[in-house]
Amino acid sequence: MSLRYYNIGTIYDLMDSVNLAKAYYSNSLLIEEQIGNKDGIFYALYGLAGIDIKENDLISADKNITRAIYIAESIDDVGGLAFCFLEKGKLFEKQNNLIGAINSYHQVINFSKRVSYRNEERVAYSQLSALFEKMNKLDSAFVYLKKYNALNELLNGIESQNKLSELKENYEIHKKEIEIDLLKKQKQLADFEVSHQKSTRNYLILVVLLVVVLVIFNIKNIYKNIKID
Question: Using alpha carbons only, what angle is made at residue 14 by residues 128 and 96, rounded to the nearest 5 degrees?
Fold first, then answer.
């Protein structure tokens, strides 16, 4: 039930229906805390922190993301830490704490590399480039922009390759479905022909039998008439 609440919250979150998302995340958190499921508590807190940042409730966001980081560390969830520090960086930016944001994004890069979360790493490079540009540190901004562009090009290439592979796979599936459908139709046609041939044969046998019976009957009548004469 809790996972369902969290998933529904995520959908509303993506739709920017923050009130509904917050309600479902809160229900998920309540259930997870009752059963003591740290993984579930982490995700619910992470979701709530994201909503808090959207609503500009920075105090609640800091409280939820700090708890989420503590739990992620306790269960050694490196990927979860990458997610959390990405939100932490956004929170620091909202608070105009640029140094805190920079440190958080560096943490994102560190954790993302450990678990190959390339998309989060890409986002961190983009955020760092924008922050350094804002601070008028153009050399650093350019360095992270290059890192972003290189990784973005790599990931877009991978995504394109994945889409191509998916298209090929779908084509092969569709082709196989057509072949199976054709084989079914051929079998149906063959079955019909066999059935038709069997019916025709039975009909011919019946006709022959009737003819034989009639011939025998006629022959008997002829002999009977001859005896009478």
Answer: 35
Helix (H, G, I), strand (E, B) or coil at 17: coil
Residue 78's Cα: distance from chain center in Å?
22
Are the C-beta atoms of 94 and 53 separated by less than 8 Å? yes
Question: b/e map of 134-159 (b: 16 or more CB within 10 Å)?
Answer: eeeeeebbeebbebbeebeeeeeeee
What's the Cα-to-Cα distance from 94 to each of 41, 88, 89, 90, 155, rounded to whole Å? Answer: 25, 10, 9, 6, 28
Name the residue among 115, 116, 96, 88 with its Cα closest to residue 106. 88
Question: Which domains are assigned to the chain?
Answer: 2-175 (1.25.40.10)
Rounded Cα gap, residues 206 and 223, in angstroms: 26
The answer to whether the CB of 87 falls within 8 A of the CB of 53 is yes
Give the pTM.
0.66
For 65-99, write each residue's pLDDT tens digit: 999 999 999 999 999 999 999 999 999 999 999 99
